[in-house]
Amino acid sequence: MASVTSLSDSVQQQLASALSATLPEAAGADPLLRRSDRADYQANGILALAKKAGTNPRELAGQVVSRVATGDELIKEVEVSGPGFLNITVSDRAIVANLAARSADGERLGVPYAEAPGTTVIDYAQPNVAKEMHVGHLRSAVIGDAVVQILEFTGEKVVRRHHIGDWGTQFGMLIQYLDEHPGELDHKGGDGVSGEEAMSNLDRLYKAARKLFDADEEFKTRARRRVVDLQAGEPRTLATWQRFVDESKIYFFSVFEKLDMEVRDEDIVGESGYNDMLHETCRLLEESGVAVRSEGALCVFFDDVKGPDGNPVPLIVQKSDGGFGYAATDLSAIRDRVFHHKADTLLYVVDARQALHFRMVFETARRAGWLNESVTAHQLAFGTILGKDGKPFKTRAGETVKLEGLLDEAVDRATAVVREKAGKVGLSEDEIVENGRYVGVGAVKYADLSTSAVRDYKFDLDQMVSLNGDTSVYLQYAYARIRSILRKAGEARPAAHPELELAPAERALGLHLDQFGETLREIAGSYEPHKLAAYLYQLASALTTFYDQCPVLKADTPEQTENRLFLIDLTARTLHRGMALLGIRTPERL
């Protein structure tokens, strides 16, 4: 079906038309519409236009009002306020009719596709081979997945990339140690191996190899020679390396499954995936003059990047010994994403502490001509997860918190909360376990996504699984409560009645529902999923006010009951869709 124009866009169009008819030189001007406490919307742009035209703003506002059609179709009334603001109230009929069109649009709820969708490559969820995932990996995965879902929903072609750490000197150490101690990995991987077992074996191997590497100079020399063999593609060395990668993937997939995230094997393209491009990347940069040799290394210099001593700090693309650093891999990845995948936009969901590195990488790519006005790159930087004490989140022993254990604890806490309420709704043990998983994982994701990515936030499981406040559990219960009412409605069915007069709480809920498409449009352009979380929380809050003021099954007339069932049904569908875009499930019963 066709997308639905929001009420605010329709009002904006009417005001713009009236404004251009009143002041021809203002054709195409933006009336600057916003939500208002005094009316449904307020237009603030007339003051600036009046000043530019040298006319009295209240007089101009009055002339605009005289050209705006009012009545029962869209705008109920419009009045001049203050120095020249316009307060606009839309009609009840327009609200219900617009929501009816959204309801008829199935799962899309009237949300339009982007006018000019492109191709976005998004780099997120970047674990390291042979290392356990910890709490620091959470934000990249959760934020990245939400951005993927939102962009795809708006019609963007999205190429997912999980740039795993699968290359470097540590693999020479690991390969050499396993070669000399072949029994350390006691299985070959496969479907019968759990993720926990795979990582336990790798972790044990890594610790033993590191201990020997640090203590035995001869082993260290052999390990470094093995790095050269790996980079040269020596078959036996490469086969052992591949085994490490495969073992790690078993573990990665198990953790992502707990996070309720889809990660496909074809989307995992690690550092090793760009090895064949590294020499050419260096050649192109050096031949173009973007990079220069300095003390044997291939470097890119920047006027505004200097060290504490005042000397320039370069981006090192190739080391003096011929080895390649992260910059060479990242620049090669840009070339692949731009020229092979034909990307218009490159997104990197990476820790804010790497901001300088990516700023230098992006500027280097711009100088080389790989990025330009048509192809842009952005780092979606994120802050740190803190403990309740406001310090970086650690275990009591001061160690990094393992992601798998954290998710298990969240699910355990959430299951206890679900079990407390289970008797009232008759949940089976299987439903308690399933809902506990959805609530626990949802709580962790929502706590992350409800905070602006650039900000740090405190990880507090007690608050996250609370039924009160801005939590995913509050939203999930709002959805489940609606589903319960709809089941109890008997023969009454949701049906829109535009002819009815709406109560204030009905109007507020309806106007907020109508903003869903606008909200997604804004988020898709700014990559800020926390704004979707805020929208959904405000929707659930408007629903709570509606419940307090507007009986549904005991409404005054059958038509009013049908209309209110219609409102809450659309609210449930909007909550369900919005939460799904955040990667969070909404159980039917809680």
TrEMBL record:
* CDD domains (alphabetical): Anticodon_Ia_Arg, ArgRS_core
What is one Pfam family matched by this protein?
tRNA-synt_1d
Q: Which GO terms describe its molecular function?
A: arginine-tRNA ligase activity; ATP binding
User: Main localisation, per the record?
Assistant: cytoplasm
Q: What residue stretches are annotated with the DALR anticodon binding domain?
A: 475-590
Q: Which InterPro entries match?
A: aa-tRNA-synth_I_CS, Arg-tRNA-ligase, Arg-tRNA-synth_N, Arg-tRNA-synth_N_sf, ArgRS_core, DALR_anticod-bd, Rossmann-like_a/b/a_fold, tRNAsynth_Ia_anticodon-bd
GO BP terms, alphabetized: arginyl-tRNA aminoacylation
Q: Which residues form the Arginyl tRNA synthetase N-terminal domain?
A: 9-90
Look at the named UniProt entry and state the broad enzyme category this protein falls under.
Answer: ligase
- Per the UniProt entry, the Enzyme Commission number(s) are 6.1.1.19
Annotated SUPFAM superfamilies: Anticodon-binding domain of a subclass of class I aminoacyl-tRNA synthetases, Arginyl-tRNA synthetase (ArgRS), N-terminal 'additional' domain, Nucleotidylyl transferase
**Cell location:** Cytoplasm
Residue interval(s) of motif 'HIGH' region: 127-137
Keywords of this protein's UniProt record, alphabetized? Aminoacyl-tRNA synthetase, ATP-binding, Cytoplasm, Ligase, Nucleotide-binding, Protein biosynthesis
Assembly, in brief, is: Monomer.
**What NCBIfam families does this protein's entry cite?**
argS
> What is stated as this protein's family in its record?
Belongs to the class-I aminoacyl-tRNA synthetase family.
Name recorded for this polypeptide: Arginine--tRNA ligase
What would be the name of the gene that encodes this protein?
argS
